[in-house]
Amino acid sequence: MSMQWTKQFSGSAFLKPLFAVLAMLALVSGCGSEHPDQQPGGSANPYPTLSLLASSEVSQPAAGQTTALQVRIQFSNPAPAAGSISVATTSDTARAGTHYSTFNDAVTFAEGASSAQFSVDILDGNGDTEDVSFQIQLTGAVNALLGSSTTQTVTIYSTTEVVDPVNQASLSLPQNLSLRAPRVGRGSIEYPIVFTLSEPSPVAGEIKLRTVEGSAEAGVNFEAFDHILPVAAGAREVVFSITLMADANQAEDLEFSLLAETATNVQLPTTRTVPVTVINVNDETAGGVPSILWPSVTDLYEPTSGSATFNLLLPFSAPASQAGSFRLATQSATALAGEHFQAFSEQIDFVAGDTEVLVPVTVMRTPLGMTEPLSFYLQISSATNVTLPNTRDLELTILPVSVSTPATAELQLQPMVEVPEPFSDASPVTYSLMLPLSMPAPTAGSVRVRSVDDTALAGRNYTAISDQAVTFAEGDENLYLDIEILFDSLGAEGKEFTLEFYDAEGIQLPESRSMSISIRASGLALPVLETPATITFQRPDDGTSFDVQLVLPFDRAAILAGSIELAVNQGSAIENRDFTGILPEYSFAKHDDEIVVDFTLVGSNYADDRQFTLVVTKANNMQLGSSTEERTITVIIEAP
Fold first, then answer.
1. Which of 11, 132, 155, 494 could pair with 93 in a Cys bridge, judged by C-beta atoms 3.0 to 4.6 Å apart?
2. What is the pTM of this model?
3. How far apart, in Å, are the Cα atoms of 344 and each of 332, 348, 377, 380?
């Protein structure tokens, strides 16, 4: 196989991005736009079907106050034309004019919209101490269709009970949780979940939390619970677990809810329900279509100056069985596009084997800075070969940065990472898992991790991890965790174990703090880095310089993201005199087939050739060929 090791040119070096995730697709239609099927409402351009959440909850405001309850109408697909939706409220135990303001109006939407939003005013209830409810109904639509879920029951929880006169901590709830169902024959999986408090609780308290059935059934897909969770004085979080059950008849993603019903000495948020998606895994081995999940990160931070980019991880429920795409767009709310964040509407492509996409979201500093949190939405649509989340909108909140609210990076975990079993005649293989942070770490820190057996057993299928500290430096964008996989002649189903993360310092952890490692029997293997023994470049003229590239190909595409580390051994060529710009580490992405080392040659009037050596001292998710410890490349700078 012939190799092209170098690319030499003048001007700045072209740097390959680590994650080439977003690609704008210009859709140009030259014909067929007048065909009836292409018209709004036609079979190829249908009107969206509308739906509401079955229930929502809100706290009764204080005397003389009102609360605006935000209600979102979900569309099954982007609207091909502008239209309107007729909405009406209906009393139940709640009384119009006492507990809420009547809403009987049309809600409009624009062409391309994937949801619509309106608000209903919640009143103070004139001192009522009972929980009450009313209903919101979709009664008609123009250029849209009413689905089966067109009624939402709103429960207003009374807050007039006497509470201790202390500053209570506030409970923070995620917008959603996504958990993988157990495989058939595995029984059940217990997922540890953590909800955080805004500050250490000044006094002891408690929170009543229970499950609410949806398309997922208690006793079939999950174990129901109705618990009172204690909150100790000084506690910063509430810990509990959700148990999912294997269901051979599950054919799609299902959903149930967690409801924070009441609390003592803890402030509950306005929205007390957390949807929980039970990810279907029954068709994964048959090449089924995976689901794409919303990121765990929903809080972004206003930069102190300029702009800041947050990399949000959208994981798949399983590796993609074939190439596909989906569309992701931003939508202004209280945060405005062009002022608080950079808007985009783009098609995101993925290839077979992908398990995630990393989406950069950029927020901007306003001239005077923010005084309160502002929010905007991510909207997802137009999927090919991937199943979209049940909720097509995700609210992102931009928080003002202050002494009490410092910017903090969050660790982002995929539900599952798949690695191949070593070949029978090979030694154990160490894989380096790259775990992205939502932003560069503001400070150095660490997180502890342990492994938990499942169908894969420590000492037989993998080497156990026990209370291991994973450290990171200030400015790091990823954490790296090594796992060692052993050969055990696996069958087609493979085996799994779990990693649990805890005791983080310097970063935040997501509510769901575990990830599954699936060991598969396959012909996949880590790629081998191919390096030349010697490479020659022409020296620039005296007083000039130019950029060069050293291309290091792989013998096959990378199956996981990774990196190599380089050391420079100076010879007659001296760094910063004869050459500059060689980095200590170079990263590559999944599916990459080469690493490009860019550096600059500096001209002089010497008459002899000069040389130095590059040593590949370490490789993550990469093999170094026959020399397993290091590879050396002699670089000759040839005089004219």
1. 132
2. 0.62
3. 11, 11, 11, 12
